[in-house]
Specification:
There is one protein chain. The protein has 96 residues and is α+β, with helices and mostly antiparallel strands. It has a single domain, classed as GIY-YIG endonuclease, CATH 3.40.1440.10. It is built from 5 helices and 3 strands. A 3-stranded antiparallel β-sheet has the order 2-1-3, sandwiched between helices. The protein starts with a strand and ends with a helix. The relative contact order is 0.25. The model has no long low-confidence stretch (mean pLDDT 96).
Length: 96
């Protein structure tokens, strides 16, 4: 089973959210549809702008916690390394 750490954004250079999941398609869909109360629903953070796969839940969780303590500038650099236009990657992962 794969696990994922991901970053969502409200828009380019907007509000960021860091999360982890074992089902990336389902979890991002939940964020996009605002199915659960919380930060992403309150602030309109729905665009998947970065993700990475991990072999273990512990690995994904550790990465999530590290990213939550990163400076915003570091997160932006991480996003722009692989996604310079801040494209919504939902359209890529939803086909998986």
């Amino acid at each position: 089973m794969a696990y994922y750490t991901y970053l969502l954004a409200s828009k380019r250079n907007g509000t960021l959210y860091v999360g982890m999941t074992n089902n990336l398609v389902r979890r991002i869909w939940e964020h996009r549809e605002e199915l659960l109360p919380g930060f992403t629903k309150k602030y309109g953070v729905h665009q998947l702008v970065w993700f990475e796969e991990h072999a273990t839940a512990a690995g994904a969780w550790q990465r999530e916690n590290r990213l939550k303590h990163w400076l915003r500038e570091w997160k932006v650099t991480l996003i722009e390394k692989d996604n310079p236009n801040w494209d919504d990657l939902w359209f890529t992962v939803s086909r998986l």
